[in-house]
Design goal:
Chain lengths: 217, 444
């Protein structure tokens, strides 16, 4: 093959509804911010629709290239639980809460438990979002106490998706950490479209190839 | 929940999740409810292992022999995907395949005269197989070459006076001089018929089924079958995510107390004091016992093994088909094996399953020929489930009901049912161009 395969790691977003997971996803994928606070609830819900996952390349300090493939929940957590599949194959989980919501902070142990049981080898990064909003309902000592109680984290960050504060540092750090673990994919397992490389875009070609697909009959 | 939806889907089994996904993608406002607190219904993969034991009424206190119980994901309804089959097409077209990883099943075997043989799928393998005598091999080879070249829309490929719409399957075998045993494994291990009713039918279906088998085989080698890592329960979850991404709302652990009708048409679903209004309901038979009829039973036996199945060259996954005639039955017995390499069992463990359509009042003895092939079994879980079909097409009531899963070991009938329900419900075939394939994948 002409190009060296860049290892790709699945990173998932976990946290209560409304803490800003999709905002972080949007910063990651298109570096944009949508002020959903000023939208109606249904318009804000719509803003999460259609977002699935997105991959971006990072170059680490040791000049190693890796790809972070960030996954959003698809809004499933709003009323139901997230599917177990979401956690499978995750190399890292970003556990998010809102610094402006003590409730979202109190839900962390439950989400942490989900990560620990369903994605047990994942690195876990704690992220407090909305650090631009003052005053903070969640104080530094709250966070310190939480970390003492659950010494499971590979990093702690305060960010604001709105102002973009801390966002790129967060992903650079995750990239560094992931680059240090060896990339392993399950032996001889494959994705169904991987034999034609380049991912989903190929589905369109396949579709043309297979116009006689049964549905049309 | 107190809102108005286009469609309410009840149950998160594979069929309902595919439907939910297809409906959401088609722009319908979908509410998807399950009474259980987990996704998948009957199509779930049970984890941890304790849950499997409790589900079947066993004590789960002494499980330390079975390795880490969280490593187990045991399918309640074991099946494989045909590599070139309907479900793979649905997965690829909807993009759901991106949530899954697969492995090729290592071997496909057929039972004859008390022994098992590798299923020869192309003319080369047929010549090397010990399944047939030397002259029969040659006849079988020319049969396979005919099938390979056959095109339904090109009469020049029909040869030997065969008319695919009029010549029966039995006559086709006769034309090539194939004996009963060869016809038996061709119809059951290659074309995957469950019984012998096809022999009197036009041979076109038989030819297309064999073509599906060899096209599937050509795709990834080894065998025509695929199996997803972490078990089949990943499939409904993948389609549920598709539905959610396109706006579907999910509620688990939500009892369904009443399906509300007005003038013979469904208008909503009640759970406790809440009512969600809708124009249509899609569901599995368990949500509408008064609108389905029992058409048969399937017995499935899940067996935990700490070794591969004997005489399969230590395959870590395989399928064995026991054609009905070989054991004096009307329908085939299916054996499938998956293992720790599929992330469905703890290190060193295997899950075999034996299933068939029930024909007698003592189903346990019916599957004995399959069980006897497995070698020592550490634990057995037997279930006999009723197979239901809807009593009407749903056109009047606007309640569209899926059929229970049958005994087949693949998903071809599953997908046909789903696409048929979609067509009945929406009046059109599913339009795959509605799926955006670039969802968040701009960097790929």
């Amino acid at each position: 093959m002409a190009s060296v395969l860049v290892p790709e790691f699945k990173v998932i977003l976990v946290g209560e509804y409304g803490v800003g997971k999709t905002s972080l996803f949007r910063r990651f994928s298109t570096n944009t911010f949508l002020d959903t606070d000023s939208m109606t609830p249904s318009a804000s819900r719509r803003s999460t629709l259609g977002l699935d996952h997105c991959a971006r390349k990072f170059e680490t300090k040791s000049l190693k290239a890796i790809k972070i493939q960030l996954w959003d929940t698809g809004g499933l957590e709003r009323v139901a639980s997230i599917t177990n599949s979401y956690y499978k194959f995750a190399a890292a989980a970003i556990l998010m809460f809102s610094l402006a919501s003590i409730d979202s902070f109190h839900c962390l142990p439950q989400h942490l438990l989900e990560i620990l049981s369903l994605a047990e080898n994942a690195k876990i990064i704690l992220v407090g979002n909305k650090c631009d909003l003052q005053p903070h309902e969640v104080t530094d000592s709250d966070i310190d106490m939480f970390l003492e109680q659950f010494p499971k984290f590979d990093g702690v960050y305060k960010i604001s998706c709105k102002t973009n504060e801390g966002v790129s540092e967060l992903f650079d750090e995750i990239a560094e950490q992931l680059a240090s673990i060896s990339y392993k994919s399950s032996f001889d397992a494959f994705k169904l479209h991987s034999h034609s490389e380049a991912g989903c875009c190929n589905a369109n070609h396949l579709q043309q190839d297979e116009e006689n697909y049964c549905c049309a009959k | 929940m107190d809102e108005e939806y286009d469609c309410i889907v009840l149950g998160t089994g594979l069929k309902e999740c595919i439907l939910s996904g297809l409906l959401s993608v088609s722009g319908k406002k979908v509410l998807h409810i399950d009474r259980n607190k987990y996704y998948g219904g009957e199509s779930a993969s049970i984890t941890p292992l304790e849950d499997l034991f409790t589900k079947f009424g066993f004590q789960s206190t002494t499980l330390e022999d079975y390795g880490r119980s969280r490593d187990w994901n045991v399918d309640l309804i074991p099946k494989f995907l045909m590599a070139n089959g309907q479900l793979v097409k649905l997965l690829v077209h909807t993009g759901v395949t991106r949530y899954l990883e697969f492995k090729s099943v290592e071997g496909s075997y057929v039972y004859k005269g008390g022994k098992i043989f590798k299923v020869p799928a192309d003319e080369k393998e047929a010549l090397a197989s010990s399944l047939m005598g030397i002259f029969e091999k040659r006849r079988f080879r020319s049969f396979l070459l005919f099938v390979q070249d056959f095109k339904a829309d090109d009469p020049k490929t029909w040869k030997n006076g065969i008319d695919p719409k009029r010549t029966t399957a039995a006559q086709l075998y006769e034309t090539f001089g194939l004996d009963k045993d060869t016809a038996d494994f061709t119809g059951h291990a290659l074309a995957l018929y469950r019984d012998d009713d096809y022999l009197g039918q036009p041979c076109l279906d038989l030819i297309q089924r064999i073509q599906l088998y060899s096209e599937s085989l050509a795709r990834y080698g080894k065998s025509p079958y695929l199996y997803p890592l972490y078990g089949l329960g990943e499939l409904p979850q993948g389609f549920a995510r598709l539905s959610a991404i396109y706006g579907g709302t999910y509620m688990l652990d939500k009892p369904v107390d009443e399906i509300i009708m007005e003038n013979g048409r469904v208008v909503g679903v009640r759970s406790g004091n809440e009512i969600a209004r809708c124009k249509q309901v899609y569901c599995d038979p368990s949500y509408v016992p008064d609108r389905v009829k029992k058409v048969g039973q399937v017995i499935r036996c899940i067996c935990l093994l700490n070794h591969p199945i004997p005489n399969t060259k230590d395959a870590l996954s395989c399928q064995i088909i026991i054609p009905q005639k070989q054991v004096g039955r009307k329908s085939d017995i299916y054996v499938s094996l998956v293992s720790y390499t599929h992330q469905v069992a703890a290190k060193g463990w295997f899950i075999a399953s034996v299933s068939t359509t029930v024909e007698t009042s003592n189903p346990q003895t019916e599957i004995k020929p399959g069980i006897d092939l497995l070698g020592p079994i550490m634990h057995k879980f037997v279930s006999v489930s009723d197979v239901y079909k809807p009593t009407d097409s749903g056109t009047e009531s606007q309640i569209f009901i899926s059929e229970s899963f049958d005994a087949t070991t693949h998903f071809e009938t599953t997908c046909l049912d789903v696409l048929d329900i979609f067509r009945r419900g929406t009046g059109e075939n599913f339009d795959f161009s509605k799926v955006k394939h670039d969802l968040g994948d701009e960097d790929n």
